[in-house]
Amino acid sequence: MDLPHILEELAYDMGELPRDAIEAAIVKRTQITPYLLQILEDAVERIDDIIEEENYQGHLYAMYLLAQFREKRAFPLLLRLFCFPGEIPHAIAGDVLTEDLGRILASVCGEDTFSLQEVIENSSLNEYVRAAAQNSLVILTGCEQLPRKEVLDYFQYLFYEGLEKKPSFVWDNLVASACRLYPDEIYDGIFGAYEKRLIDPSFLSLEEVATILAEEKESFLFDFYQESELIEDTVGEMEKWLTGFDDNSLLR
Question: CA-CA distance, 75 to 212, in Å (whole number)?
């Protein structure tokens, strides 16, 4: 399959997985990467068109493929794409925003965790984008690309001073992210956030945090490291979306 045909197959949701096009793109990784990067670049410039064209999904396939390729040049483009205000990130990515953006960013950020921290601490950004950046740090830890202590120390900083003192999903997800790392060293910061009513206890209660900490630490962390993964298989990721929801579109 030649490049124009691959790109055409990946551009729009036609109701079924373009498996042959995805597999051909992977085979032609070197040749197709500049085109995938250009798709992300163009998406930033034509954001209104993407929102209006409900079946357009070229930018999403580009995201997953570039993540599988570990293409670091995609990272600043993704940050630009998801730094639009309000509900625009959800409009252009659907459930990918909440389910996979963290893994995608972790797959392409390389060593640039500072930019992830900037996203997390930027109160003007969509709260789910900020949460995805938190998830990226957890995933990088689980894939042994960041030390657990370094990430927990950063989360402790967020609990005490790094975030605006206003309840939001950013706070809820911060507790959930910390809990994935077995947060015994930073429990005081977690407890303080609950005391200040920054966390929605219906999302994750303090009792549930205590239950996690009652587990055996070594076993808990062993499972965490075993389960953490970057984007490895675009076909498998796309099949997950097609079989996991009644609505086959990624843009739900």
Answer: 33
- Does pLDDT of 251 surpass 90? no
* Dihedral, CA of residue 43, residue 49, residue 51 and residue 56, to nearest 10: -70
In a domain, residue 250? The reply is no
What is the spatial distance between Cα 175 and Cα 131, in angstroms, rounded to a whole number?
11
pLDDT value of residue 16: 87
Which residue, chain included where needed, has tokens 């639009």?
84
Nearest to 92 by CA among 210, 236, 251, 214: 251
- CB contact set of 233 (below 8 Å; sequence gap of 6+): 68
Q: Token pair for residue 7?
A: 């790109």
Parent domain of 223: 3-244
In a domain? residue 249: no
145: helix, strand or coil: coil
Residue 251 lies in a domain: no
* pLDDT of res. 14: 82
Q: Is the pLDDT of residue 248 over 60?
A: no
Q: In the chain, how many domains are there?
A: 1
**For residues 117-140, average pLDDT:** 98
Q: What are phi and psi of 197, to 5 degrees?
A: 60, 40
Q: H or E element: which one contains 76?
A: helix 74-81
Alpha carbon distance 127, 89 (integer Å): 10
Q: Does a structural domain hold residue 157? A: yes
3-class DSSP state of 31: helix
Amino acid identity, position 34: P
Q: What pLDDT does 13 receive? A: 87
Q: What pLDDT does 26 receive? A: 97
Tell me the average pLDDT of the chain.
94
